[in-house]
Amino acid sequence: MPSSATSPVLTPGRLRALLIVLCAALALVVAGNSALAIALPDIAEDLGADQSQLTWIIDAYALTFAAMLLTAGLAADRVGRRTILVLGLVVFGGASVASAFSPDPEWFIALRAVSGVGAAAVFPVTLSALVDAYPEERRTFAIGVWSGVSSAGAVAGTIISGALLEVFWWGSVQLLFGGVAIALIVPALLLVAQNRNPALSLDPVGALWSVIALGGLVFGIVEGPQRGWTDAVTLAALAVGTAGFVAFVAHQLRARVPSLDVRLFKNRGLAAGSTIVTIQFFASLGFFVLSPQYLQIVLDYSPLGAALVLLIVPVGVGAGIGASAALAKRFGARVPGSLGLLLMGGGFAVLGLGLLGGLEPSLWVLGGGVLVFGVGFGMGITPGTELIIEGLPAERRSVASAVNDITREVGGVLGIAVLSSILVAFYRDEIAPALDGLPPEVQDAADSGAGAALGVAEAFGPQGDALALAAREAFAVGLSASMFVGAVVLAVAAVIVVIVAPGRAAARPLEGRDVGVRTGAEI
């Protein structure tokens, strides 16, 4: 294939430097949501955001991130990986800095959506450039480090955010992340190879349908609890999203050279790996967005205290990654992949039971659930990524990277939307009796979310104390319901992986036949 550049053989020192720079960029965009989740109570108070707006502050980023990933992967192959990576860092950094000074929730949501576009440009290059640069005998090491950073980055971002919030306002989180992104531009220019194939097409029709599909489905899921599931707007959004998904699939099946040939998912490794990664991030991003709010709103932890509690997760992830390597070596990816999902589901079930303790839960039970969840995440993350990468022939590595990224972000945005929606629905049912007799404006505020309820409760004396207590208890009940739903989803996914994933001696992917994927061109 034509190319304007080839990948140079890097010295060990430059290879390590490349690994550091790409993993730093990866950590930034992965932590773009989890780091801000710890600040949501402060944002709600400062900007007057209700629960739906808080959900959109997170989901606006995740939505544009997911929707633009395929297009960004195609652009990286056509325009050049280094160019797209640098553009992504500029957009992500600039929008993050600007969002620190948002005057209201609407501006913040809009700038978060722009940040997600920048993140989508950064993310695919971090994996494909690493896999290309590392020799085959060290490629598993590079993927393992990348996978570890992708999981640990969320917790690290939460801790950094918590520390900043002890001293500064919530905008300091955005300033730091934006500044680091801009600082990475120069080393990215020096280290990342400019590989490109100008003959590729960006498939604007496919990109448009993917944006419509995700936008409609996520909007409907987020707004359903607020407007009602039978509301015309909710139903219209879900219908548009479903139609967009069907149109995207039909377009890919008809296209002479599709951007993402859906027939590729007949490959058992690709299908199983996509299932693992999608459901892992469905659960994990939902957890990282909702659990800090529980720790601060219900248990009255400080932002830093809430972040430090979540350090249990990387402890479990480290143990899970170690166990995964041993299991994969003996049994192949199927066993650690499915067992990881099952352990994550077990952790969610334990958390759901512990949260039923209301305002006085057993911290040992909650901590045990978080630890088991972390072990499961660590056990499944590397097998999931490797199944996707190995599910396609080597010359189609970029599309494998794009599929891996898309499944993560689609799973994440749906997890945040679905689990948040379940929490809101149960919260509203639980708090309704405590709102009888209160002024209408107080009822509306308390009904919109626990953070707003605590804010208005301060002005009502003893009656306000009862409202605050009811809001905390209702939030715990809602989060418990979310955890139980997540546990069921994870358990079902584990069964699917057991059935679908190839055995250890499964044949390598098809070689030679043109399966119609343009993003996979390797230069």
* Poorly predicted ranges: 1-6, 505-523
Total number of strands: 0
Q: From the helix content, strand content and strand pairing, which structural class follows?
A: mainly alpha
Order of helices and strands: HHHHHHHHHHHHHHHHHHH
Oligomer: single chain
What is the rounded Rg? Answer: 22 Å
What's the helix count? 19
Major pleated sheet: none
Distance between the termini: 7 Å
Please estimate the helix content.
over 70%
Mean pLDDT: 79
The percent range for strand residues is under 5%
Question: In one word, what is the shape?
Answer: globular
Which key phrases capture this entry?
single chain, mainly alpha, 19 helices, disordered N terminus
Q: Could you explain how this protein is built, in words?
A:
This protein is mainly α and 523 residues long. The chain contains 19 helices and no strands. It has helices at 12-37, 40-47, 51-79, 81-99, 105-133, 139-167, 171-183, 185-191, 204-227, 232-254, 268-297, 303-309, 312-331, 334-355, 363-390, 397-431, 440-448, 450-457, 461-500. Helix 13 runs antiparallel to helix 14.
Topology:
Layout: H1 12-37, H2 40-47, H3 51-79, H4 81-99, H5 105-133, H6 139-167, H7 171-183, H8 185-191, H9 204-227, H10 232-254, H11 268-297, H12 303-309, H13 312-331, H14 334-355, H15 363-390, H16 397-431, H17 440-448, H18 450-457, H19 461-500
Helix pairs in contact: 1-3, 1-5, 1-6, 1-7, 1-11, 3-4, 3-5, 3-9, 3-16, 4-5, 4-7, 5-6, 5-16, 6-12, 6-13, 6-15, 9-10, 9-16, 11-14, 11-15, 11-16, 11-19, 13-14, 13-15, 14-15, 14-19, 15-16, 16-19, 17-18, 18-19
